[in-house]
Structures are given as C-alpha cells and as structure tokens.
Amino acid sequence: DILKTKTPIPDNFLKLESETGNYCDIPHTIMKELDLPLGEDIPYPVYISPSVINRAPTFGGITIENKKEIIIDKPFSKDQECQTNLTEAKGNQNQELQDQITTLILNNRQTEIRRLNNALQTAQQEKEKVERDLKSNLLGLLFKNKQKNKRISELNSSLSFLRGLLADKNQEANDLEQRLIATDTLITNTQNLLGIDDLNNLPVLPEGETLITLIARPTQAQLQDKQNEVGRKNDEITELNRTIKKLEDEKKVLKDELDIEKAIMAENITLEQKEENRQYILDNLDKYTIDANGDFFNVDPEVLGEEYDYIKLILFDTENAYPNFFKNKET
Question: Which spans of this chain does the record mark as coiled coil (predicted)?
Fold first, then answer.
C-alpha cells in the first residue's frame, strides 16, 4: 500500500532518532499547512534542517519557524496515487501548453531574425551605395582641392612677381622725382648765377662760348615729359596695388572653400566609420542565443550598442503577451 515518499529528503537534513519523545515547537499555522493534528505525536519519520539545531528554543523543544525547515516523511495511499496521477496529467497539459507557447515564441523569434536578415541585406546594399557615392565624392573633392591648391600656388607666384614689379616701379618713380628735383635746382642756381629770369633770353655769349658749355639744361618739353613719366609710374603703382588686393581676396576665398571641403571630407570619413561600426553590429547578430527554457536572448550590450534598446523592446512586448511564461525570469 506504500508507494513512495512525498518529498525528496535533502542530504543535509537531520532525521530525528525516534518517532516519539521528541518535542517540536511548531506554530499552529505551520501545522495546518503540514496537515498535522494538534497535540499529537507525529507518527512518521521527521527530518529537520541543520539551521534549527543552534536556535534558542521557545518552549523547550526544537523550534520550527518555517515549514521549509521540517519534512514529514508520509507514505502515499492509493487514493493519493490517483490524485498524484491527476496532478501529473495536469502538469503534462501545462507542459504541453508551455511547449506550444515556446514554439510560438521561437517561431516569432525566427520570423524576427529573418526580418533582421532582410534588414541587414538592405543595410548592406545601402552601405555599398553610400561607399560608392562617398568614393566618388572624395575623388571629386580631391580633384577640386588639387586644382584650388594649384591656383593658390599660381596666385602666390603672381603676387610675388607683382610685389617685385611694384618695388621696381616705386624705385623708378623715386629716381625720376629726384632727377626732376635736381634739374629744377640746377636751373634755379644757373638763373641766380647769370642774373637772368629766363634762360631762353640769354645775352650774347662771349666768342667761343655756347650755352652747352655754360650749362647743360633740359628744355621745358623735356621737363614736362619727365613729369608725365612720373605720373604714369604712379598710375602703374596704383593699378598694381588694386591687382594685388584683388588677388589677395581671391586667395582668401579659395582658402576658405578649401577649409570647408576639408571639413566635409573629415565628416564623410566619420560617416564611413559609423557605417563600419553599424556593419560590425549587424555582423554580430549571430551572437543572439535562443533557449527553450525561457532565456530567449542572451545579449551582450557592448556588442549590440544602439541595437540593444531595440532588443529590449522585443522582450518587453513578448513579456506583455505571455506574462506567466516570463514569471520569475530575468529579461
């Protein structure tokens, strides 16, 4: 008539040496949970947890504070066996239902993985297109930058040449100015020396003397020509200054454009690095693991990065759909 023990006995539990004569202080609430009669001996083997041995007794016996600290080794009757069979059948139904839920969730996960694979292929195609466009844009920017650097070099050469030419023109103008001053001074000194106001109305020179032997002086027309030449030199200097200013402005514009294009190239390189990081994330999708016992995704957040929030959202939706299945599970 005896079938089996109701509960497996842990190895560390201690068995009381006799079924009578051992006094256990058990609260009435725990006795009811254990289905024990009040005020009577327990006619079955009793096992207690080692933790109660050193506990100070409340009323002189072994004090039990939790039903997990004591095991009553009751035998099962035939009626209990039937009840056990019913319980096992219900457990089998629950297991079958749980298996169905597991299969459903696994199918959903497989569908999600297929969707992620499709998204991966789409992302790969987009990445390849972006890489092609990026390479094309980079080549175009490199060519433009090369042309602009060449133009800036040409402008620097032109500016150096024009600055040298300007210095020469300034020197020529200064020389002409000094010659004009020297000529005017010579004419004035000659007039003062001869005591005349107009060199064109000189008195009769002594025989054998000529004006050339007296003084070599330029004519008014020559003086005017020199003055006109000084004016032309000044005009050339002014024009050269305008040209230099224009070239300096063009050089500044080209340099600003070159700085902007360098910044764009740096940003494009940063975008390419982000795409490589995203590809690394997508390449590591196989690190998702599916466990039929309930831990569906063991995810390494450092591997997934920005994708981790998306995975947590999937688990959150699944937990709402099957709350009992995730009970006491860390998601």
Answer: 94-133, 223-264
pTM assigned to the model: 0.29
pLDDT in tens, 203-244: 565 566 565 655 545 567 777 888 888 888 888 888 888 888
Q: How far is CA 189 from CA 39, 213, 227, in A?
A: 154, 16, 20
112 and 185 in one domain? yes
Full DSSP string of 276-316: HHHHHHHHTGGG----TTS------HHHHGGGHHHHHHHHH
Query: Is residue 319 in some structural domain?
Result: yes
* pLDDT tens, position by position, 55-95: 766 666 677 888 888 888 876 655 555 555 556 666 667 77
Provide the residue range defining the domain that includes 326.
Answer: 285-331
Task: Name the 3-class secondary structure at 43.
Answer: coil
Cα 209 off chain centre by: 98
Inside any domain, residue 328: yes
